[in-house]
Specification:
single chain; 182 residues; alpha/beta; Rossmann fold; 6-stranded parallel beta sheet; two-stranded antiparallel ribbon; 5 helices
């Protein structure tokens, strides 16, 4: 049996409506993430929590020591669950995440979190490149509207594009219901 871990990426206060980078669909993503986390705990699966902070002293968001960097309580790590502090979108870059996964003989990772088009996508691509089988539970992820060349891209399209790109070559994409039923 393949050993699997859930990687919970950046569910931090900064992404709530009270934060500096509120995301579309965050309540829905958090509710699904909480269900997935509970199921992993009940099933004895490994959980790894990832938290973003910017190392630059002039950072405007994810400032070390601020309320914005704190993990949202609904999906907070339980005692003994590892927390990986990262400074880049890819949770493997400059961290010991791969080492921790390898120490537990993890072969498959399930990724949930924020933002779909940034840290979820970056971490998923890196995990695939490192040889892990990757699943993204898309309705346990959230993102925001973007703008490119004066064109506003709605959050739903940003999310769909990120998931479509991952599905093309990097990850299996599923929903919470299908994952929990599987």
């Amino acid at each position: 049996m393949t050993k699997r871990a859930i990687i919970v990426v950046d569910f931090q206060n900064e992404y709530l409506p009270t934060g500096k980078l509120p995301l579309t669909g965050m309540d829905h993503a958090l509710a699904n993430a909480a269900r997935l986390i509970d199921a992993a705990r009940d099933g004895g699966e490994a959980l790894f929590h990832v938290r973003h902070e910017f190392a630059e002293p002039d950072a405007q968001v994810f400032v070390p020591g601020s309320d914005g960097v704190e993990t949202i309580s609904a999906v907070a790590p339980a005692e003994g669950e590892p927390v990986v502090l990262k400074n880049y979108p890819n949770a493997f870059r400059g961290t010991n995440l791969k080492q921790q996964l390898d120490e537990q003989d993890i072969e498959e990772v399930v990724i949930i979190g924020a933002m779909s088009h940034m840290c979820v996508e970056g971490t998923s691509r890196a995990a695939s490149d490192l040889g892990y089988a990757v699943t993204v539970v898309e309705d346990a992820c959230a993102t925001m509207e973007l703008e490119f060349h004066n064109t506003k891209v709605p959050a739903a399209q940003v999310h769909a594009t990120a998931m479509a790109a991952l599905a093309f070559a990097y990850a299996s994409i599923t929903g919470t219901e299908a994952y929990l039923a599987g």
